Amino acid sequence: MGQWFETVNEAQQRAKRRLPPSVYSALLAGSEKGVSYSDNTAAFGELGLAPHVAGLAAKRDLSTTIMGQDISLPVLISPTGVQAVHPEGEVAVARAAAARGTAMGLSSFASKPLADVVEANPQTFFQTYWMGDRDAMVRRMDRARDAGAVGLIATLDWSFSHGRDWGSPKIPERLDLKAMAKFAPEVLRRPRWLADFVRSGRLPDLSTPNLAEPGAQAPTFFGAYGEWMTTPPPSWEDVAWLRETWGGPFMLKGICRVDDALAARDAGVTAISVSNHGGNNLDSTPAPIRALPAIATAVGHDVEVVLDSGIRRGSDVVKALALGAKAVMIGRAYLWGLAAGGQPGVENVLDILRGGIDSALLGLGHSSIHDLTPEDVIVPTGFTRVLGVSRT
Ligand SMILES: Cc1cc2nc3c(=O)[nH]c(=O)nc-3n(C[C@H](O)[C@H](O)[C@H](O)COP(=O)(O)O)c2cc1C
């Protein structure tokens, strides 16, 4: 990797310079007008912190436990599907997470087999959508368990909205010669990205090995997407069935409302992620940090509450923990690090977040992340959103 970068924003600028525009645009993602995408980061900026200057703690403890996994900082890798950013893709991310003592979420649309990712990081959760019939889901869960996944993340917030005001990249079905010829002009303007793949001897892989039935060829990204799109969406009974059939630690990702959080609890989940899918799904859903306080209060200690969407700094993590999350997950932050510098780039991002959490704890006068409370954060009037509570 090039030089150390000191903020996630800088990693993003490097990723933009290094990646072919279509690949960069696929990572930037967002949906429709980008209202949710923008609010996710803007909302953290609206929250204040109230620091002390003396009586501070000389040492700070950042460790915690999520879904039965001990992690050295309250930041996990959120599953993301597009990692043709770097030849080592998800394996590089998993190694970086292991090196920095945290857990990895692997997307079912990942380009690397789960077994290789588990080898790189035994603290790996497999992420699934509600896709295919129940038999196919059972077989997929069995394969994930056999490959060593230590938990399942079920992502349910997806409603297949595809337009973006700033345009979507045209991703090919597979990278064959015809597709390469079409993309050649923009790829040739990014020689360092291309050189990484040439050195690895492989083209970016757009298939989904973790969705392949034994002995069958891995479906293409779009083949798998089509199956998902035509699967009838799940009921809460289906969610309870999925959780029970998996049998181990289970996270439901994509909760925005109090009533859904309570239903997830009743379905027996271990954890929820308060999330709007990084602003990539239904536009105009509020930043999850606005919905977090009411959800955390409603579920109490019955369920582990995680938050994702919009985390770019250690102080964002501290704000989320103070308002009731046990940990956060990151998406784009590590994707920018991966694009900027492979495994060391992801380690760099995790180090930035660790450093930021540590300095915020120091300034707030706490010796542990577990001591954070809502009083550490200045929440402006009108900031929070209470969704899914009847106001009678
Ligand atoms: C390019 C991209 C691909 C994603 N793919 C998946 C996926 O396959 N499964 C999933 O559960 N979430 C997916 N997500 C959502 C992330 O897990 C996470 O919720 C989101 O990125 C968090 O917001 P942040 O990027 O602001 O940190 C994806 C996000 C991005 C940006």
UniProtKB/TrEMBL annotation:
Binding site for FMN: 79-81, 107, 127, 155, 253, 275, 308-312, 331-332
Top-level taxonomic group: Bacteria
InterPro entries referenced in this protein's UniProt entry, alphabetically: Aldolase_TIM, Alpha-hydoxy_acid_DH_FMN, FMN-dep_DH, FMN_HAD, MftD
Stored SUPFAM superfamilies: FMN-linked oxidoreductases
Pfam families, A to Z: FMN_dh
Cytoplasm is among the record's keywords: no
Alphabetical UniProt keywords: Flavoprotein, FMN, Oxidoreductase
Needed co-factor(s): FMN
Start and end residues of each FMN hydroxy acid dehydrogenase domain: 1-382
Positions annotated to bind glyoxylate: Y129, R164, H277
Active site: H277
GO MF: FMN binding; oxidoreductase activity
UniProt xrefs under PROSITE patterns: FMN_HYDROXY_ACID_DH_2
Family matches, as NCBIfam families: actino_HemFlav
Family membership: Belongs to the FMN-dependent alpha-hydroxy acid dehydrogenase family.
Full protein name: Mycofactocin system heme/flavin oxidoreductase MftD
